[in-house]
Design a protein that fits this description.
Elements: H1 3-11, E1 19-24, H2 28-40, E2 47-52, H3 59-67, E3 73-74, E4 85-89, E5 106-109, E6 120-123, H4 130-140, H5 147-160, H6 170-180, H7 185-193, H8 201-209, E7 212-214, E8 217-224, H9 228-238, E9 246-253, E10 256-263, H10 270-278, E11 283-286, E12 290-296, H11 297-304, H12 313-328
Parallel strand pairs: 1-2, 1-4, 2-3, 4-5, 5-6, 8-9
Antiparallel strand pairs: 7-8, 9-10, 10-12, 11-12
This protein binds manganese (II) ion.
Length: 334
């Protein structure tokens, strides 16, 4: 099927009185793809709304919504009866129970095919981003994308392909090339630079004060934390040190010890390492470059034979994390 035939088949689903709901799991690729649907259906449907069900917490994603002035509506504020057409982009209905709430007219996605239950299914797993697929629709419709739409689609492609470093098809590169002339590079930079909030600075400062660097591995145990996100932001931040191969940032949140691990991908898998080091006492897992551990405080208290109220608890935890990663993790240094 040609791009134009595909576009025509998609547009044929809708009429001028259609009220369309686009359902997404909001990340940059999904948000941009939904925005492209809205543009395609401009003047072709009476209304197009975008709804999402996940919590958007990453500062860069929040910045994207703010600087591009995008309106997406939490799913709990949506009345299904106000819509008669349903579209899902960048996911398939069986990916989450919230998607399964609706019966879809169209599914457009780039994940491996698991569910093509709509009248119109366009699933292309070889593509790095759904935004690339949507760019092809925009091109086929002969639409000149607005600065905000082009910027959003570029963010979708850049995010899902990690800046063309992973799972990139030639189509992703071509879409980028097309969008680039319409996008605003300063907006892209503004979104990508938004790695943390001003209120995270005090936490980062504390983590820096408490850091211990052992053979290119940056450790920081930060005691009680307001949110595990703080450890994530700080672990990413420590990886910016030129000599850092690993960063391991931890804290106590909601009666659990949270350990966030990052590495540069050039050594032993972070996920494997935390499994070997902490699986015996808590939940531990992850990928090659990122991993997470959660251990119940009561299990730590049993392990150390002291309570969290004890003065030596924090020191013990901090040292215990280092010891476990260094020995049980079996890290090879470069
Ligand atoms: Mn995607």
């Amino acid at each position: 099927m040609s791009q134009i035939q595909r576009l025509e088949k998609f547009l044929a689903l809708f009429s001028s009185d259609s009220r369309v709901l686009v359902v997404i799991n909001a990340d940059p690729d999904a948000i941009a793809s939904a925005l492209a649907i809205k543009r395609l259906l401009w003047r072709k449907a009476i209304e197009v709304k975008i709804t999402y069900f996940n919590e958007i917490r990453r500062p860069d994603n929040l910045t994207m919504l703010r600087v591009l002035d995008l309106e997406i509506i939490p799913i709990k504020e949506i009345d299904e009866n106000n819509f008669d057409k349903f579209v899902v982009v960048d996911s398939q209905p069986d990916h989450h129970e919230c998607f399964a709430m609706f019966r879809y007219d169209a599914i457009i996605d780039h994940h491996p095919l698991t569910c093509d239950s709509a009248d119109f299914n366009d699933i292309r797993p070889e593509y790095g981003a759904c935004s690339t697929m949507m760019t092809e629709y925009i091109k086929a419709a002969d639409i000149k994308p607005s600065e905000h739409l082009a910027t959003a689609l570029i963010m979708g492609i850049k995010t899902d392909t990690k800046g063309f470093l992973r799972h990139t098809a030639m189509e992703d590169v071509r879409a980028f090339q097309f969008l680039y002339r319409y996008a605003n590079p300063s907006l892209i930079a503004k979104i990508e630079n938004a790695e943390f909030r001003a209120k995270d600075l005090d936490f980062i400062a504390k983590a820096i004060r408490r850091k211990k660097i052992i053979k290119h591995r940056v450790y920081s145990y930060t005691g009680k934390i307001e949110s595990p996100d703080q450890c994530v932001i700080t672990a990413d931040f420590f990886m910016k040190i030129d000599s850092a191969n690993w960063s391991i940032v931890s804290g106590i949140y909601d009666k659990q010890l949270i350990i966030i691990v990052r590495n540069d991908g050039l050594r032993k898998s972070a996920g494997k390492t935390v499994k070997e080091a902490f699986d015996f006492i808590g939940s531990a897992g992850g990928h090659r470059t990122m991993a997470r551990v959660e251990i119940k405080i009561e299990d730590l208290e049993k392990e150390f034979e002291i309570t969290i109220k004890s003065e030596s608890f924090d020191t013990m935890v901090a040292e215990w994390i280092i010891e476990n990663i260094e020995t049980h993790g079996g890290i090879k240094t470069a």
